[in-house]
Write a structure and sequence with these properties.
The structure is a homodimer of 155-residue chains.
Chain A lengths: L1 H12 L4 H11 E11 L4 E14 L4 H10 L3 E5 L9 E6 L2 H14 L5 H18 L6 H15 L1
Antiparallel strand pairs in A: 1-2, 2-4, 3-4
Chain lengths: 155, 155
């Protein structure tokens, strides 16, 4: 019995490690950027939506709580699936620029992704992050540059 | 320049770690079992196909070479995709019973998967592995037991 208890404790105490997170994000994570242009009566606005996220089937969603705690940022939501034979998803997303710049980007710079496709996206994500940090996308010229980076990132 | 070179070296030397593999397999791996019953003129045969595998898009397939080296078993193959907007896949699979029993199962016992759905499949995979080790599926009774485990595993 004591063996069982200690093995259960181990299970609970087994914290996430950076390598585990990199493996999971290589397989299941995503980095996305959308430029958002707003034209109003008296002004135009240049915004950019950045997302780091992981979506998992609901039954495996508990991991995302741990990932949220690990990064100490981001939100969880449930995506209801209406198609038959598909299951609901739990979605972990970090969207606020400050968390992306101060937590997400530094983490993956310290612990690099291994999938070439993911590394490539992340490289553009970082470039765009730098523009966001310096608010370089807030005029027409900067916004055009950002849009062309996004286009390349999506290829 | 020297900085660039050393960073490139680091990239190459960065070996896979167990935690990374667990994260990747939680997201992208699979364990599957198929009972194979053969009825011939003079005899019947009871076989079981076990597979541990990971399929990735071709552009990320290089990782699977490293995983094959890490586990020191298994085969790589390319799955040609004919549908538009889908890309070819590289498939890593371990099928021989000996490698599964001596390498794959012990690895994931030492480094447990974290996804509940994956843990559950693996638990059945291990149970079936034990039957295979003892050749307990080689008669009608054992084969029926194996089939019912497979059925539960698939639920």
């Amino acid at each position: 019995v004591s063996e069982k208890i200690s093995s259960a404790d181990n299970q609970q105490e087994r914290l996430l490690t950076p390598d585990y997170i990199v493996g999971l994000v290589d397989g299941e994570g995503y980095f996305s950027v959308s430029p958002v242009y707003g034209k109003y009566k008296n002004y135009t606005s240049f915004e950019v939506k950045m997302i780091f996220g992981i979506d998992l089937k609901e039954k495996d969603g508990k991991i995302l709580n741990e990932i949220q705690q690990y990064f100490d940022c981001g939100h969880l939501s449930r995506k209801i699936e209406k198609r038959e034979n598909f299951s609901n998803q739990i979605r972990y997303q970090v969207k606020d620029h400050s968390s992306i710049l101060k937590k997400i980007i530094p983490f993956f710079q310290k612990h690099p992704l291994r999938f070439p496709s993911r590394q490539r996206k992340f490289k553009f994500f970082v470039k765009i992050g730098r523009m966001v940090e310096k608010r370089e996308y807030k005029d027409v010229k900067g916004f055009e540059k950002l849009k062309s980076l996004v286009q390349k990132m999506r290829q």
